[in-house]
Amino acid sequence: MNTTLKLKKATYHLWTFTISKIISSFGAQVYAFAISFYILQTTGSATSFAMNLICSILPRTIVAPFAGYVADNFSRKKIVILAQIATTLAISGLLIVSITSGLSLVAIYITTCILAVTSTFSGVTFSSSITGLVDEARIQKAMSLNQISISFAAIASPAVGGLLYGYVSMPVFLMCYIVASSIAIILESTMDFKLYANRKEVSEETEKESVFQSIKMGIQYLKTQDVLMAIIWISLFINFLFGAFQVGYSYILIDQMKMASQHFGFTEGAFAVGMLLMSIYFSIRKEVRFPLLVSKRGILAMAVVMAAISIPLMVSMNYWVIFSYYVALMFTFGSLIIIVNTPIQVMMQKKIDDDYKGRVFSIIETMSMALMPLGMVIYGFLYDLLPAQWILISSAILLIMVVLLLARPAVMRKAHPELTKNPSLSKPETMTS
């Protein structure tokens, strides 16, 4: 295939990939909203609701390493399509159960577990396939469009889910999801996952290699990549320390600020809007020159925002000032997440060998998912014992110290050798460079 045709195919992939992700992300989030609402409305039990969350998180943590192994050793196109087909069949099964005998918690939990597994295989494989689907010059655009689809789903799904839930029955709801998932299968089947792929041919010996040997090789590969290891350690600490934000934000606004539920919803909406607008910006701007440097500064800014959440606890403000303050803060926070994530994701896509992408991304997902619940449990305990403002400020200071240590100048120079030759290059590296 000549260069012009490959570029046209890559452009087709960009939009097909985005539409497919919008459909699948939107469908999954609307489904999650409806099922959560159904469980709470039917049972009135927080325990039943929490069980559904566990059924969503635990399988992802368990199967992520296997998803990485499969993505690196088998056809990525087949994995993505089979995962989407399995999603469609799982929802179809739940639809049949709802029509024949009515929805039960057991059926919902089983379906949630299956969807968690299929989304892990699909997500890890798609992340591993970006460099095979589009040309190198548009990797940042592809990552941004992916984030746009996720942000759009996060903004629109609660509204659409609430509207549909109020006007249509659960079987109709599930049928809509089945149709959407079927469209995603058709779109994904038209994509060429090998267009720009640089994978070695899988030999019979490689196919016989055990899952654990394969994961071990992935870890050994990571150990040879100093910059990637620094990025992974930073991401692990962020996921843990941001338990202070995840637990503290809702606790402060609802319990201590007594904010009305609809106003609290607006602040969360501002977060999604910030992510969406910054994703759109990254999709049209040129690639960031020094991604790790931009991400480092973005994380430091996020630490400042995290500490700033505590200010209304220490300074007297009226209700509407507090509301406006948190809307602005969450919009900024959402924007900063994209500023941190997008350059790093592009950098990792380019630095990680194509044959190890699945395992590396799955290792990152496993470690991150494992630390998130731990962080939330520990911070939940701390918020019951200590003043919220000091927990947030201490966590922000700790995050700043971790980033300054793990992303120290020596690591920066290793990631971006140009800085060694001309240190002044780092000064103008801003969002406009």
Automatic annotation (TrEMBL):
InterPro entries: MFS_trans_sf, TM_effector. It is found in: Cell membrane. This is MFS transporter. It is a multi-pass membrane protein. The keyword Translocase does not apply. The lineage of its organism: Bacteria, Bacillati, Bacillota, Bacilli, Bacillales. It comes from the Bacteria. SUPFAM superfamilies: MFS general substrate transporter. Keywords: Cell membrane, Membrane, Transmembrane, Transmembrane helix, Transport. The chain crosses the membrane at residues 12-40, 46-67, 79-100, 106-127, 148-166, 172-191, 227-252, 264-282, 294-313, 319-340, 360-382, 388-407.
